Amino acid sequence: MDFTFTEDQILFRDNIRSVFLKEVAPELLRELWDTADGRSKALWNLLTEQGLCGFSVPEDHGGMAMNDLDWILIAQEVGYFALPEPLLDTAWLGVGMLVDLPATPLADALRSEWLPRIAEGNARIAIGGPLNPLVADAHVADLLLLHHNGEVHAVAPGAVKLVANPSLEQSRRLFRVEWTPSDKTRVADAAQGKAIWTKAVNRGVLAVAAQLSGLASRMLDISVDYSVDRKQFGKQIGSFQALKHYMADVAVKIEFARPVIFRAAYALNNDQQRASIHASHAFLAALEAALYGAKKGMQVHGAMGYTWEVDLQIFMKRAWVLAAAWGDKGFHKSRIAEFVLAENAPQTQLGPSHTFIE
Question: What is the pTM of this model?
Fold first, then answer.
């Protein structure tokens, strides 16, 4: 079996990285923090021009019909550059939910209206799921997909009241959404919504895991660069053995997390039975790498990483807020524990021979 990414997937990732390298600088992020909505129309237009907004929109609605595996490398770049725009929530998670809705007149009309608009870059989606009651980017959303007793509701911005919630990271604007469910907003009942929300949660968890992996890599790169520039006792601090160990340990955790994330993407893309377990495993591995990268990055910077002038603080804060975006550490540990500690787990579920058997 070949588990490597295709040349097209890698080429697209490299192209996106080159665009982000030019257009998503830390200076831009600081500028956006001081604006009213924290968003950039020019940056969103750029994402649209690169085809990202229509990346997983079906072809008959004007998109490219890409899948979950195609997204995973892009999501890592979103994390590496701490992209402020709600690209993943709209173009990956939101589109996925719209596509997964049942074939009803209301859902069909919703798809026909919104999927082309998303592909054209003319619509953003915010998601309030069972694990994220505080909705990110609800203030710029053109459509909100909300959870209510297992149901899926599609709600217009004019039908909700938004209450801003303080966030550690100013790029991630969070809101408590006050709204009234009705038959007009319900696009999937509880029975239909169970599968939709399960897949949406797994996509959300995987999107967070991929971003955390990218954030860990960025914090490592920033720390390495700083260790080369900074001198003590006439030497680059990067030459000190203790700091070399710090950065090597971070690199190891990142490399251990990546295959776990890729495995989870494979499971999700192929609708495997254990996709939820793999998603939680990916989240925990990526979170460990990101938090460790933040901690060691802070030590490399001599505790200066918190300050506004140092870029490290941008990526540390993004990692900290994503740590509870789609379920916290306790929730994901519980999901894995229930699976691993099941009565028949040692005999029939665990071990290398069962890695790709469902």
Answer: 0.94
